[in-house]
Amino acid sequence: MERSIGLQAWIDRLNQAELPALAAVVQDLHRLSQADTSSVQQLADVLLRDASLTSKVLRIGNSVYYNPSQESIRTISRAIVLIGFDNVRLIGMSVSLIDSLLVRVPREQLQMLLARSFHAAVQARNIAGYVLAKNQEEVFIAALLHTVGELAFWSCGGDQADELADLLDQPGMDEDEAVRQVIGTSFRQLTQGLVKSWNLGELASFAHGSGNQHDPAVRAINLGVKISEAALEGWDSPGMDALVQQLADFTGISPEDALKQVLESAEEAVEVAATFGASQLCRLIPNTDPEQIKLQQQERKARLLQPNLLVMQQALQDLGMMVSQKADVGLILETLLKGLHQGAGLERVMLAVLADGQSRFRAKRVVGEGTEGWLEDFQLPANQREQPHIFSYVLRNREAIWMGVPASYNLNELVTLPMRQHLGQGMFLIAPLLAGTREIGVLYADCRTSGRALKHEQFVAFQRFTQLTGRCLEALSKR
Q1: DSSP conformational letter for 306
Q2: Per residue in 325-334, pLDDT tens?
Q3: Which residues 6+ apart lie within 8 Å of 326 measured at CB?
Q4: InterPro entries, from UniProt (predicted)?
């Protein structure tokens, strides 16, 4: 198949060549949710057009999940009476989605994403139960379709999907940039385009930021989606803690109950995926069994950045040689950041230099998860009498400081609000970078990605690297 580039090309391809049956069912089922007068017969008619869809809806209607009393359901109209109009509509939509997307040999990306979508849908619906009297099924469907553009791409993208998968495997590749390069638009725009062309109306487009963020349904969808993403980092990750707190505030329950609710919804999501005939997705929804959680935590810890003495010694040796040999600034700074990050195991490192006529600090070099944004938006005034901060303090006093230990508590007020907004809370290391007597800027490092405490040997290495880099830059300026 020829390449499709750009939003319209993809919408046409998905609607006409790849998913026309899904588009039709989703549209018709959604239309029934809009009309107050939708009848049992109209819903039955939509489902009865497709014999396999009918039999699947009946099978699911007879499952313990939807029909605990196990009263036999043989017709669609009986299903609607027993388990409810909205539930039957939701089952029809979910089954159509699974059948259309998993029909080919499903790739890992598609299965991961579909598992996350089911997890998000169950979380969102259960959150909505606290704050909405009705429309909980609508919330489920909107969360399920939250990434429908991306789902459709991984299902039907052919060679371009292979190409994107290869690109995303390259270390340091920016995901949004790679997607744009391969398909000529973003997944977010593709989802919005499909939602529009399928006439899915307010709720699905709401969930993509164009709606009112204070609408309880929209908040439930967004929370469900974020919880399903954070769960992949582990139930005890900092991101999950923050979301559990948001859920507690939103629903008026205690944080303990909120966490319980989240874990129960995750278990329910596994049950829902299995009930809907997508049992291959169950293993991809994060496990809530305490033993399994412990295992996941250990695996995550093993993946965390660990200090590497060989890398550290090599970087120190290289810098030592650069003092006497000619090396350019780029190579010096690259060696410095590699030594601190991969060698000393410091998760996030930033060199902020004096810029704009020495009037402000700007991020010049960064390394570590989530630090790319600093290059664009991190800056602090260099001399601010009314609100002094730790960056100008270390440069003026020419000393390295380990913030967050008792020895530096008296300097806590120098960690200003703008700093906390950029860098977050917790321990960090900070030191002046000088070329002889010339002020270059400030080095900053922390371990906030994992929230681990910093160690004495990391501080010693940090000081050593800063001094050596200063000597390299001084030697360079003398040539």
Answers
A1: -
A2: 878 899 999 9
A3: 476, 479
A4: GAF-like_dom_sf, HDOD, RNase_Y/CdgJ
**Alpha-carbon torsion angle 316, 319, 320, 325, nearest 10:** 160
Do the Cβ atoms of 377 and 418 come closer than 8 Å?
no
Given this model, what pLDDT does residue 35 score? 67
Strand partners, 367: 349
The one-character DSSP state at 234 is: -
Classify residue 187 by burial, with Cβ atoms within 10 Å: 0-12, 13-18, 19+.
buried
Cβ contacts of 269 within 8 Å, gap of 6 or more: 118, 119, 121, 122, 123, 285
CATH class of residue range 7-300: mainly alpha
CB atoms within 10 A of CB 281: 27
Q: How far is C-alpha 293 from the chain's CA centre?
A: 20
From residue 290, how far is each of 160, 220, 224 by CA, in Å?
Answer: 40, 26, 22
List strands edge to edge, sheet with 428-435.
379-381, 360-367, 348-355, 438-446, 428-435, 401-403
- Helix 136-144, helix 108-131: angle, nearest 10: 160
Query: Domain coordinates of the chain in residue numbers?
Result: 7-300, 309-478
375-394: pLDDT as tens digits: 988 989 988 777 789 999 99
CB neighbours of residue 51 within 10 Å: 9
Contact 348, 446 (CB under 8 A): yes
Strands 348-355, 438-446: pairing is antiparallel
Closest by CA position to 336, among listed 373, 355, 311? 311
How many whole angstroms separate alpha carbon 235 and alpha carbon 293?
8
CATH superfamily of 309-478: GAF domain (3.30.450.40)
Q: Does residue 336 contact residue 469 with C-beta atoms inside 8 Å?
A: yes
Per-residue pLDDT tens digits for 415-441: 988 888 888 888 999 999 999 889 999
Classify each residue of 55-76 as buried b or exposed e, where b means 16 or more C-beta atoms within 10 Å of its C-beta. ebbbebbbbeebbeeeeebeeb
Can you name the residues that pair with 351 across neighbouring β-strands? 365, 443
Q: What are phi and psi of 3, to 5 degrees?
A: -65, 145
Query: How many whole angstroms separate alpha carbon 198 and alpha carbon 192?
Result: 10
**CB contact at 8 A, 211 and 202:** yes
